[in-house]
Amino acid sequence: MRELTPAEQAVSAALRRGQEIDLRSGDPVHDSPAYAAAWDPGRTIRAEVLAELLLGEYADPGDKPGLRLAGARITGLLHLAFGEIDFPITFEGCAFDERPDLYQARTRFLSFAGSRLPGLIASNIQVEGNLRLTGCHVTGELRLPSARINGNLTLNRARLDNPGGTAINGEHLDVGSNLRAQDGFTCDGEIILTAARVGAAVNIDGARLRAPGGVAFGGGNMVVQVGLFARDVEAEGEVSLRFARVAGPLTLRGSRLRNPGGLAVRGGGLNAESGLFMSLVETEGIIWLEGAAIGRTLSLDGARLRNPGGLVLAGDNIVVNGALLAREGLSAEGEISLLNASVTGPAHFEGARLVNPGGAALSANGITVGKVLNLCDGFSAQGRIRLTSARIGSRLCLHDATLEAPGGAALKCGRMEARELALRTAEPIRGTVELRHARIGLLRDTPGVWPDALRMDGLSYEVLEPMLPAAERLDWLRRDPDGYLPHAYEQLAAMYRRLGSDADARDTLLAGQRQRRATLPWYAALWGHLQDVTVGYGFRPLRAAGWLAALLVLGTVVFALAEPPPLKRGEAPEFSSLVYTLDLLLPIIDFGQEKAFNPGGGTQWLAYGLIVAGWVLATTIAAGLTRSLRRA
Known about the structure:
Elements: H1 6-17, E1 20-22, E2 44-46, H2 47-54, E3 67-70, E4 73-75, E5 84-85, E6 89-92, E7 95-96, E8 106-107, E9 110-111, E10 116-117, E11 120-121, E12 126-127, E13 131-132, E14 137-138, E15 142-143, E16 148-149, E17 153-154, E18 159-169, E19 174-175, E20 179-180, E21 186-192, E22 197-198, E23 201-203, E24 208-218, E25 223-224, E26 227-229, E27 234-240, E28 245-246, E29 250-251, E30 256-266, E31 271-272, E32 276-277, E33 282-288, E34 293-299, E35 304-314, E36 319-325, E37 331-337, E38 342-343, E39 347-348, E40 353-363, E41 368-369, E42 373-374, E43 380-386, E44 391-397, E45 402-412, E46 417-423, E47 430-434, E48 439-445, E49 453-455, E50 460-465, H3 470-477, H4 486-498, H5 502-517, H6 522-535, H7 541-561, H8 577-585, H9 602-631
Parallel strand pairs: 1-3, 2-4, 3-6, 4-7, 5-8, 6-9, 8-12, 9-13, 10-14, 11-15, 12-16, 13-17, 14-18, 15-18, 16-19, 17-20, 18-21, 19-22, 20-23, 21-24, 22-25, 23-26, 24-27, 25-28, 26-29, 27-30, 28-31, 29-32, 30-33, 31-34, 32-34, 33-35, 34-36, 35-37, 36-38, 36-39, 37-40, 38-41, 39-42, 40-43, ...
Helix pairs in contact: 1-2, 4-5, 6-9, 7-8, 7-9
């Protein structure tokens, strides 16, 4: 072995016995590795000497080797690649001039606590215990691809500086227990943990991550067995959890995630088995969760999401096996998309504020919600709410909500299915409400806040609440900008009949015929007017009886005063003005009077008029009764 300095001799002697060598002066400021250039030369250890000592053989029975070195400056390259070191190695508060090389090395325990390193090469390293980088300052890349650490990987209070590059490369890293980077951990550079596996928890609570335009935390395809905790994190750049699998909870509660113009969170295909908690987060950019599988709870309570004019949350095809919570002051500037999402429990948006004027505030076409979907109790949306083909297991509630989409469709619920729709908004909805071909059990609304435009073609419901008389409900039907729609009137009449209000049912159908008349050509409209005046389209049969009675009285009086002469004297029956008038009015019945007498002058024209009136009344009565019976 080459000639050793006193400090190196001390290290050699202490290493064999596992004793600590502390070269620090005792002045905390002066002993900081940031001032290593000003340290006394007696604190310098040559890297090649240290490598020879670490890779030496210690076979004597009294040897209990272990390196415990504090306050040293390591000059040169510490080359331990492929080395097998069967004892713990601890550097505390040391300064390395060059990044140590431990490529595919093997050791029992490795610590660089409080040290300063220009980087670390530890690809494929195997550590039987823990790898500690607590309080380190690393100014280059920390290379750990395919490393295997049976215990914990600890980066608490560490400061990693590699701006514009990769600060941690941990692709396929395997940590048997916990990965901790908290208590003031900061990182300027990308953290890449693609396909890493962590046997217990990942905890980066309070971390400060900076990788503008890059990946602040890259955990794509990562597998975490216990939970991933990233509360109160500040991240500038993308947080990627694409196709990651977290067996326990995944929480970003209270974090501030910024990646303007890009993805703040990339979580497509994420599997968070015990829930994804993003309450109180603040994001700038897109939260991308398409195709994610979330167990128990997806929480966005109190979150503030910003990506004005674009997608702010992409959750198409997401599956939440539990509750979706987006309450307590959630605000979203941009579009929340939940197309074809599935939520087995309730979805709560009480008090949420969605802002995307001119676009969609909430796109949830094809969503399935097992229980209630609450867009109520102070919920507001500037922009369209799209729930076409949605399936709501219980109630869609818009009680006390405010919806605004002037000039467009504020609420689209076409082909939606729900047991109950509570459309009692805080004020009239600004924009069109579309309920075409929706299927609803109970529809609750309030006349004072009926939407100005309400499309209802094909809408089916069992009960309307409140149960208003037809005279009031007809104004509701007339709010459809598509005009007369037969099904809308028939549906309302059917509800009245189910509830035993036949009079309201008839009034509804009569109003429908009057609305229909406005769509007909003039000749058909004229016929419709005649049916309306005479028999009320068959829904007012007593009106026809009144007309018949009036004409009967008229004819009886006139013909009594101006009795028509018989056609053949001596053969005519005794004249009766009443029976003669009946014979003229009733086209089917023949009393023998009409054919026996021959009126002249004005009475002849009266006779013609009564014959025509009789045919018209008979025809309209038959048509009206047929229509009424067909709808009964």
